[in-house]
Each structure stands twice: as structure tokens, then as C-alpha cells.
Amino acid sequence: MKDIHKKSVLYIILSAVLLSTGGVLLKYVDLKPMEIAGARAIVSSIVVFAYVKKPKFTFSKAQVAGAISYSMMVIGFIAANKLTTAANAIVLQYTAPIWVAILSYFILKEKIHYYDVMSIVFIIVGMVLVFFDDVGGGNIKGDIIAIISGIFLAIVTISLRFQKDESPVETTLLGHLLTAFIGIFFLWGVHFSLTDLIGILLLGIFQLGISYILYSEAIKHVNAIEASVLMFIEPILNPVWVYLAFGEKPGSLALIGCLIVLATILVRSVIASRANRQDIIN
User: Which residues cross the membrane (predicted)?
Assistant: First the structure.
């Protein structure tokens, strides 16, 4: 049992590291966001389909909503990376847990706790600092798209809660296929350089395909708080790779804002996990 847990922890770490390469790989690919999204989705669809082998699509409201939101999330993340810094893009997308708390209140009728309210306040402060830093720098559009991408990620999470007795992999696969279908219309006549092709293959196979397969297998044997803490490797490493490769770094205010957002999400995850554990004991 301990060996399974150790292997699962390793899988999540590998998943987070693979996902963190998204920012730097997207910078290398000299294509428009929709062209990248479509090409990457074709590759990732093949990878995930090969893993699932016999997918079961129910086309329930939850699965369709999750697939559409997943597609919008990955497209938005690519666009954000092209318009703003990698740090801003990944950190602002990582506001998703807060949007989950808000949407859960209205959709799932779940209670919003004090730590959710406090987290929302601190995250707003962090986002305001990011926006102030980017005003006049041309990055604010990318920041807004990154936040919207985080909202779609939250909707994906909500939709998967409705499918707890089904396989969530099919929802993400459907999202990949939808993104590929949309992207095909933008790929007509596009010229791919060798660097573009290598970047697309790496993004589709490793950064998106294999990373989600590893995570879906690992989450069965790792509790939520441990998984969420380990996944923070992604938003930490993402801008590091981009800085090392391109020298890109956020401004001082944006950096402080990003750190506030990351710290808030991490602290909220720990408090929420302890609160849930206490409820189970009681």
C-alpha cells in the first residue's frame, strides 16, 4: 500500500512538472492561439484515446458542459500565454478553486465558508496588483483571459462532481475532441516550421496528454490536500522555465500579486481539508 502511495505521489509530481512546461513550449511555437489549440488537441486526443481505448460518452448535461468548458479553458490558457507573462497566465488561472466555491453555492447549493470569503478578498487584492502592474503594458487583455480560463476550469470541476459515478477521463477526452474540431477550421493553409511541429508534439503528448493520464491514475491513491499541494509545482515552475528560456518575468507588483494568489489558494486548501476531515470525524 505504501508503495502504491509513493508511486502515486511520483505520478502527481511528474504530472505537475509536465503541465508546467506549457508556458515555455507555447512561447516557442510561432502560431496563433487557435492554431496551437487545434493542433495540440489533435495530438492529445490521440494520446488519451489510446489510453482509454473504449470511451463511454453519455453526452449528459454534466459531460457536455464539462467538455465545452474544458475546451474553452485550454484555448483561453493558450491565448493568455501569448498575450501576457507565463506567470500571470498560470497564476490567474489558478484562481479556479475560488470560482468553484462561488459556483458551488449557486449550483450545488453548498455553503460558502469563512475561509472562502477571506480567500476571495485576498485573491482580489492579488489580481488588482497584477492589473495595476500591467496597465499600459499591453498585458491586461491576457490577464482577463487567464481569469476567464480559470472560471472555465472551475466549471469543469463542478461538472465532474456531477459525474462522480462515471469516468471523468471521457469528459476531458470529449473536450480534446471538441477543441480539435474547432481548431481544424483555423489550420487550413497554416505553415508549420520544424520548431512548431516539435512544440505541438511535445505539448500534445507530454504537457497535456500524458500529464492528465498520470494525474487521473494517481488521484485514486492520494488525498485531496496532498494532491493540491503537490500540484502547486506547476504554477511555480511554469514561469521559471519561461524566465530561463526567454528572460521573461513579471513586474514587481505583478510578482507580489501572484505570490498573494498562490499563498491564498494553498492556505485555503489546507484549511478546507482540515475542516472536511473534522466534519467526517464529527
Answer: 9-28, 34-52, 64-80, 86-107, 114-132, 144-162, 174-191, 197-215, 227-246, 252-271
Name the nearest CA neighbour of 154 among 86, 66, 266, 44.
66
Give residue-wise pLDDT tens across range 126-170: 888 887 776 555 578 898 999 999 999 888 878 876 776 666 778
209: phi then psi, degrees, rounded to nearest 5 = -70, -65
| CA distances, 236 to each of 15, 70, 240, 263, 269 (Å) | 14, 22, 7, 11, 16
Of residues 111 and 127, which shows the higher confidence score? Answer: 127
Mean pLDDT of 185-201: 94
Angle between helices 233-246 and 86-93 (to 10 degrees): 170
Per cent of the chain over pLDDT 70 is 89
Distance CA 102, CA 278 (A): 22
Residues 6+ apart with CB under 8 A from 16: 211, 230, 231, 232, 233, 234, 237
Phi then psi dihedrals of residue 248, to 5 deg: -80, 130
Q: Check whether 31 has a pLDDT greater than 90.
A: yes
